[in-house]
Description:
Blueprint: H1 3-10, E1 16-17, H2 23-32, E2 37-40, E3 49-52, H3 53-59, H4 88-98, E4 102-106, E5 112-117, H5 118-141
Parallel strand pairs: 1-2
Antiparallel strand pairs: 2-3, 4-5
Helix pairs in contact: 4-5
Amino acid sequence: MRIYELLRTKGFHVITVRPSATVLEVVGLLEEYNLGAVVISPDGREVSGIVTERDIVRRLLEGTEFLTGPVSAIMTTDVQTCTAADSVRSLMTIMTEQRIRHLPVVDDNGRLSGIVSIGDAVKSHITEIEFERDQLEGYVSG
């Protein structure tokens, strides 16, 4: 299965914020939309960075002052991405090896076209396994 098929079911919409948004604004979006990550983008198409719940929680050990500062101060700028043509299996490999849970999907020009999570990949994999099981059961039972 390709990431495009996964996005067709999930949807292509991505919640983004500008780099100047405060960390508190990002926390509000995470809560409002039940997200684990927000893509940072100046225009909703360019991927400048990503911020996850984990990024925010780990910074809390240093105090809470960063919450009123710009999200650009804590975002990951070296963002791993994938394309809609990539396989879900390759996505799972990247996520496992690099210990990341969210990957922005970009088009051939590097423009944001979706986002996938480890949950999306696992759900897709389970669906694929169930389909194969049903096919095998049908074959065996005649």
